[in-house]
Amino acid sequence: MLCKEVDKLKKYEYDSTRYFWGVTAPGIFMIMLLIYGIKENINNPTFGIPSLIIITTLYGINNTFIALSHPKTIVIDKEGIEFHSFGRVHSYSWARLDYFMVKEFSARKLYLRIENPKLFKGRYWIKTNMYNDSDELYLKINKEEKRIHPNLLKFKAKKRRPNKKKRRKK
Question: Which pTM value belongs to this model?
Answer without folding.
Answer: 0.79
